Recover the amino acids of this structure.
């Protein structure tokens, strides 16, 4: 017999797995069940289909599941573990510093988020009389900055603007104004707008609350 006629045909991967007592489907499940990005797995920031969560949601490792022990060639136990992840339960945002009477839902969301994430803030203004429509219509808040002219105050205001801009889609953000600069989500900036002692944040509103809204961090 020739050398080639003595070569044994290779077993398919399916036959090897069957010999180990492990269905092929088990590995397919383990390979498909991978960690998803936080943006896709988190809960909505406001009750409703269009809203999204704030940063702070994260994936944490869960206990291994889908263990299928088999016996290996040397008698040792071989474990096939399907690695999974569990989403940490979202935290409900309580009422913040801003008076919420007359504010629209997206404005309430950003006000509560700023209150929760920036404990240095002690005062947030909401609805007030103004010749422009933003404050009277519940579309804007004023985040008052402690020691606004100090290096620490300026840095804090900058952080709040950056936070609002980063979450522009979630907050349905229209603009921020801080230290004479007008910021928009599209990157537009302009000078000469005042606001040196507070960060002005305007949203597109999202409608007035009906009483059943839940706001998530």
């Amino acid at each position: 017999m020739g050398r080639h006629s003595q070569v044994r045909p290779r077993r398919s991967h399916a036959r090897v797995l069957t010999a180990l007592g492990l269905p092929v489907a088990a590995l397919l499940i383990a390979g498909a069940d991978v960690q998803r990005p936080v943006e896709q797995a988190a809960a909505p920031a406001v009750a409703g289909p269009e809203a999204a969560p704030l940063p702070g949601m994260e994936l944490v490792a869960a206990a291994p599941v889908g263990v299928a022990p088999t016996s290996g060639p040397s008698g040792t136990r071989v474990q096939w573990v399907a690695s999974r992840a569990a989403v940490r339960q979202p935290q409900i945002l309580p009422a913040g510093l801003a008076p919420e009477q007359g504010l629209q839902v997206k404005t309430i969301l950003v006000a509560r988020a700023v209150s929760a994430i920036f404990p240095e803030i002690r005062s947030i203004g909401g609805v007030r009389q103004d010749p422009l429509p933003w404050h009277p219509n519940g579309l804007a808040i004023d985040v008052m900055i402690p020691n606004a002219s100090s290096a620490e105050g300026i840095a804090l205001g900058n952080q709040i603007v950056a936070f609002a801009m980063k979450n522009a889609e979630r907050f349905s953000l229209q603009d921020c104004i801080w230290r004479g600069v007008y910021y928009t989500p599209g990157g537009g900036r302009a000078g000469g707008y005042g606001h040196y002692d507070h960060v002005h944040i305007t949203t597109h509103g999202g409608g007035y609350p009906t009483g059943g809204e839940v706001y998530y961090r």
Summary: The beta strands are 59-61, 70-71, 77-78, 85-87, 124-125, 140-144, 173-178, 181-183, 189-190, 198-203. The longest strand covers residues 173-178. Residues 3-86 have pLDDT under 50 and may be disordered. Residues 105-203 form one domain.
